[in-house]
Fold each of these.
Amino acid sequence: MAEHYEQVKQRWEERFESSYGRWRGLIDGVVYAFVDCGDFEHGFARIFCDACKSEFLLAFSCSRRGFCPSCAAKRGAMFGAFLREEVAEEVGHCLWTFTVDLRWHPHIHAIASRGGWDRAGAWRPVSWVDTHAAELVFRHKVIAFLAA
């Protein structure tokens, strides 16, 4: 990354802008943080255990979950554990990804339960979900939001 980044940036307009859109300024910070991720020269914390008296150094991470595979995996695992333990009931779920077809690919990840509770409080699973109907509802909501 460090070796070729400046070359890509210099050629972006002529080679990639027509397909992927203009160069966004926030990219520099993300890439430079990624290159420094886990490098002790760019900062670290000293970890000390009172119980066993052992210690070690932990290099700072870039915390760029959308770009750095290491930081993305950590945050993904933490978020998954949070969803499992604090948010989602122990019922069937599915993951839907709704996209808006623009050059920079905005999208939303949605976790939906595969069923619901009846008035008596009993869980009623649903074996099939109409994804086309969900797509239509999403499209309607996005257009209504943008029109407002």
Note: The chain has five helices and six strands.
Amino acid sequence: MRTSGKLSISTAEAKSVVLSNHARSRLTVARNARISPPVAQPKPDDWTRWNDYGIGLLLQGDLKGAEAAFTNVTRIVPDNPDGWVNIGRARLIEGNLAGARQVLDRALSLSPNLARARYFYSRILRSEGDYDGALAHLSAVIRQYPKDRVVRNDAGRILFLQKKYAEAVKEFEVVLAIDPEDVQAHYNLMLCFNGLGKQDRALEHEKRYLRFKADEAAQSITGPYRATHPEDNNERQGIHEHLSSPPSRKGGA
């Protein structure tokens, strides 16, 4: 018992008064306690969003970010070859040929006739000097997409490097049948006809190449204008962002 003047209270009551007056409390926590945040489990359909995100990063030149996004695709759908192919694309641009071969091998094991995988694999072999192997993969792609001028141009270029000029000419002429203004085809035909000793044909494609190629002098001409007109310069970029939109019109467009 405690006695304070005329007031007598018990020890338990005294403790209660102290807690109520000062609102004190003590909480015991275990030492080195760690609280892990919940980990979101990806859904099967999430791979498309990661894939699109990775392609956007790839187009912007963020190769490491793109590879990380495509790696998430392979974790969500490991049996889908798209993620492996796109990792290969990023590594190929980076110059990591061994790494690109590794993931493209995985893609081809999942889908042996996948044209995308075969095309990028051909670029690895071409960089390594295996022209016959690269042409074998490109031929498989051409059988599926005979009007793909990018693949045809690559095949023609490899034939040119092998000094098979007549065969290369056939490939480039197919390209021009698809797109008569294809700059790469005209340039390589100029080289092929020079190799064949047909100077008149070479001169013909040289003129067309000079006509259709990008005007490099235009960059210096338009430079000062673009420097003072950022909105127009933004529109000129292949990948750009619109920070604002015009106000909506009331009563219809």
Note: The beta strands are 2-4, 7-9.
Amino acid sequence: MNDLKYVAFDVHKSNIVVAVLNLEGKLISEAIIETQASPIRDFLRGLSGSVHLTFEEGSHSQWLFDLARPLVSHILVCDPRQNHFLKSGNKSDKIDASKLALLLRAGLLKEVYHGQAINQTLKQLVHNYDSLTSDTTRLMNRVKALFRSRAIACLGRDVYYKRNRTQWLDKLTDRGLRLRAESLYQQLDLVRCLRRDAKKAMLREASKEKAFKLLSTIPGLGPVRVSQLLASIGSPFRFQTTRQLWSYCGLGVVTRSSADYELTNGEVRRRQKAGQTRGLNRNYNHRLKMVFKSAAIEAMKEESIRKIYESQVKKGIRPEMARLSIARKLVAVSLAIWKKEEEFDPKKMTKLVA
């Protein structure tokens, strides 16, 4: 136990600043190594005893996690948004590394989950599909913005179709605008083609997962949403409770309370008052929130779920809160089905989440 070392990496694109603390929290070593696999391995292998390593989440984090995991006793990738201690006082790479090592020793770092390498292929394919989807939307907006800049009405999707493209281009009398529109159309056609191929590759990889067919039976969760769900979560056993997954999806209700206890006849009792809500949590996985919000809207097309939504609205619950209840229930059902490896039971949707 006396050989325990706390190691922190302050990672940059060309070099890594390292701080090493002993069990008592004393700085025993500092180093600057190149951000390459061989120097990192050599440094970690040169440390004796049990090594606990940490570094902040960033563009290198998954690569560094996979590289260092076999060489250390414990590895923790931390959330930089939670490390407020690094912002106080003087700042430099060496100071940041030392503070990060101190936070690791004190157990004050917020861990960011990194899955096994077996999930990385699907993760990359989903990232590729999401990026191409965003690029497609961006190009479609640019096409419409170009026509609107000349007061040419372009409602609906007709402006994007190839069959009427010549008619739309003829409406642009300015040569420069026409050439720009032609270029945008070429880009749009290419990105759409890439997006179709990316979607096929993503679904092909996702269908290999055992949970793919089970989760696809849940209302509102089609093949694309299930693929995004599998890539974002990786393993359902990351979450011990449904509330943890709600917060990860941005569907956790934040409450605030104060003066919770009072003395009555010499006894400490909890006050009978409810905590005040402060909306939903702001630190969440944006992809998953989009998946379950859109899935809730899609699921309400089914009669049984639509009735649940309408009954909530009749009770005086605001429509957006009723949709939130549906989304939270979809999260709970997804987690249960994934863990228990059972098919979807429509009866489980009849009990609303409080």
Note: The chain is about 50% helix and 15% strand.
Amino acid sequence: MPLEGESAFDGLKKAYGKGLELRGKTLGIIGFGRIGRAVARQGYGLGMKVVAHDPFVTDGSFEVAFADGQTLRTSATMLSIGSELLASADAVSVHIAGKAEVLGAAEIAQMKKGAFLVNAARGGVVNEEALLNALDHGHLAGAALDVFTNEPTPHVNLLMHDKLSLTPHIGAATEEAQDRISAELADTIIANA
């Protein structure tokens, strides 16, 4: 309820509190394929230090393209997942194939206190019970999930948690992404004809 003379917007603004800037923070990316590198470009563009882990990739290089046509080639620092990446990253973004659990209770406990976790890979890659526990006890500041273990019916505790931002696996549901996918498929068909 807003105080006297205060608008509802002012009340929401006060309730939200202060945010955090991404510039100067460390972005840890687990899975450094096509999507992981796309996330690296975004993080780099926001002024973040980019570190990555991928057991199948040793080259951390990626290219950032700017609106004026210029490009910049740079590199993520490739780290081990546990004591290096998880312990140092302010935000961890997961982009791996497969459904095997990669971040269980032990790995989440290794994450930097106050860090954020993003899972846009597959449901089951992050142990949701361990994630909720880390959020409830203040170890993690927040998380964003685009995938769930029990899609399309995620556990109600995930849906109701105030430190979780949730989307229904719609990361590629934009006009532009669908156009790119169509063009990529057509190119593949033509190349294999």
Note: Residues 31 and 96 are 5 Å apart (CA to CA).
